[in-house]
Amino acid sequence: MEAPAAITTLEPSTPRSCPLVLTPAKIVVRFGDPASVNCSTSATGFSQIGWEAISGGTVSDGTVIAWTVEKVEDWNTKPLCYINVNDGLCSTMLDITLYKTPDSVSVSPLDQGPMVEGAEYRLKCDITNVAPVQQLKLTWYRGSETVHTEMFNDTRKTPVNVSSTLKVTPERDHNGVLFRCEAELHLGLNGSELVPNVTSSPYMAVVHYKPRVKTCSRRYAGVEHKFSIDRLPCEVDGNPPPTIQWYHEDELINASEPLHRTQSGEYTAEIINSLGSSNFSVLITIEYGPSFTCAGNLEVVEDDTFQCEADGVPKPLVTWFKGDRREEVAAPQRWTKNDHGKYSLQAINTHGQATHELHVVVLYGPVFNGLDSAEVTVILGEDVTFNCSADGNPTPEIEWSYSPKANIGKNI
């Protein structure tokens, strides 16, 4: 049965005035896919029920009629179900949304050259051939973080090309971060569940920034002849990658040359790239194993404080042993005549040990041991002998003095 000519002028009636039910009441269809909707009525006494559409128009004298299309290929289609009742025609229009996912979503830079820390930079997201654009939501991501969302006001139903610009002020931590944009059609209940999002390929940010030191100890100890400045566990950062120059006492040095004990001190690094430079300093201590600098034979004066010290960094622990039996003794603080003799010294630190043989001679002034007797009885005309001794180093010389008497001769 063909639809009457008057149908072409139908306008949709209000739901209350027209006893028609569409199942489903709303549909979301991808352009080019099939579609099917039933129109039914509970009214009696009507002559016919039918569909008016650019494609798929049908008429029936039953209570249910289907609008079925193998391919929906008209962006302006407005399927209308109508019924011819006793008091005239009434109708209802199908709520249909046709969509098309983008052919492509891509990110590209709008500004030439790399990003520079602190300077504004623009990225563009292009979305091609998408519909309906007014239901498109675009989301920008930096890594996994959402940085911008955008909706579009274009009311066209046919596919269009749209773009979005993202302004970024990059930081050094953004170097190597992936930017991407994602297109999502918000088609309402059920529709969004069927439509996949389309995401661009990632755009890797290359951010240039001034150099800096990330990690470096302000003090460091290295071992003599094994440590060089370029072995410092320091990490510097910069893009483009910076060069490093080291200075000691304002002189440029070869950072790969091993240092020796006289080169402890402050070293300054200058890190440079095309965007600038920065400096940092490290106090270097060169450590080395112990050694003795004092002679093997020493003469000291009694009560002297001279010590036989061991050189080394860190400061060595020195142990004194005396005599052939190597009896451990405390290092003399003030030398006495009883401290003379042979010593063996042992020095130890974290980098090794050293030994030193030492023979000490203690010099001290003479000390009288006394006379055999302070008083002597003599017989006139006979000899008398007085014994006197003294101790000292060097061996002291003893001199006698007396007061002459007329009746005493001398034989000293």
Which spans have pLDDT < 50 for at least 5 consecutive residues?
1-9
Main sheet characteristics: 6 strands, mixed
What do the pLDDT scores average to? 87
User: Helicity, in percent?
Assistant: under 10%
Radius of gyration over all CA atoms, rounded: 54 Å
Q: In CATH, what is the homologous superfamily of the largest domain?
A: Immunoglobulins
Outline the secondary-structure elements.
Blueprint: E1 20-23, E2 26-30, E3 35-41, E4 48-52, E5 59-60, E6 64-69, E7 80-85, E8 88-93, E9 95-99, E10 104-109, E11 115-116, E12 121-130, E13 136-142, E14 145-151, E15 160-168, E16 178-185, H1 191-194, E17 198-199, E18 203-204, E19 207-215, E20 219-223, E21 235-239, E22 243-248, E23 251-252, E24 265-273, E25 276-292, E26 297-301, E27 310-313, E28 317-322, E29 327-329, E30 341-349, E31 352-371, E32 388-393
Parallel strand pairs: 2-9, 11-19, 20-25, 26-31
Antiparallel strand pairs: 1-3, 3-6, 4-5, 4-7, 7-8, 10-12, 12-15, 13-14, 13-16, 16-17, 16-18, 19-21, 22-23, 22-24, 24-25, 25-27, 28-29, 28-30, 30-31, 31-32
In short:
By secondary structure, the chain is mainly beta. It contains one helix and 32 strands. It folds into four domains: 95 residues, Immunoglobulin-like, CATH 2.60.40.10; 102 residues, Immunoglobulin-like, CATH 2.60.40.10; 79 residues, Sandwich (Immunoglobulin-like); 76 residues, Immunoglobulin-like.
